[in-house]
From TrEMBL:
Molecular function in Gene Ontology: ATP binding
Keyword rRNA processing: no
Keyword annotations of the record: ATP-binding, Nucleotide-binding
Domain of life: Bacteria
Name of the protein in its database record: ATP-binding protein
Taxonomic source organism: Ktedonosporobacter rubrisoli
InterPro entries per record: P-loop_NTPase (IPR027417)
């Protein structure tokens, strides 16, 4: 039996992770679990107020995110997870419990572009107000100006995608790379 495929979409804030994840989910018809999707449900149910509360909900959000990932993997099902993942502990723990293949996609962009995107979407009210993005400009500016963070050291296939210009993204190439994983190339899938 083929091992399930975990597609991780990660990168800095405003790097296009959710946009990319939705394209992949539509192409492959895999379930998509997003950190912000979970967190915004929590904001709607529990309320929102400030950065400290947002951070507190982030820890609960990650616990739920990994719970949902584990449910899919334990059932032998593929799953797409999107977040600005920074820690490897949870993935390594999942790897000890289940056999699955990882396809990690790192979204990156020109640093100034990231900062401008972040600021524009905060000011446009595109994101849930519970994220309190307007309160984090100075905190996140040095991080965003880097344009890229480090990949997760969790093994599997690693794929980088420059999202500076969304129109320049080669989705066919990305989809072909995903189809080259053993999930698609081993008979019986």
């Amino acid at each position: 039996m083929t091992q399930p495929l975990l597609i991780l979409i990660t990168g800095l804030p405003a790097s296009g992770k959710t946009t990319l994840a939705k394209h992949i989910a539509a192409e492959f018809h895999f379930p998509l679990i997003t950190k912000d999707g979970i967190k915004e449900l929590l904001f709607d149910q529990l309320g929102w107020k400030d950065r400290a509360w947002s951070r507190q909900l982030s820890s609960v959000t990650y616990a739920l995110l990994f719970h949902f990932i584990e449910l899919q993997l334990s059932a032998g099902q593929p799953v797409i997870a999107e977040s600005n993942f920074a820690r490897t502990d949870e993935f390594l723990a999942l790897k000890r419990r289940y056999a699955f293949e990882i396809f990690q996609i790192k979204c990156f962009a020109d640093g100034l572009t990231l900062f401008q995107r972040f600021k524009e979407r905060a000011e446009a009210g595109i994101r849930h107000p519970g994220h309190v993005d307007q309160q984090t400009y100075e905190e996140l500016k040095p991080l965003l100006l880097r344009g890229k963070d480090e990949p997760l050291n969790i093994g599997g296939t690693y794929y980088e995608i420059d999202t500076t210009d969304f129109l320049a993204i080669d989705y066919k190439k990305l989809f072909a790379a995903i189809r080259a994983t053993s999930y698609f190339t081993i008979p019986g899938t």
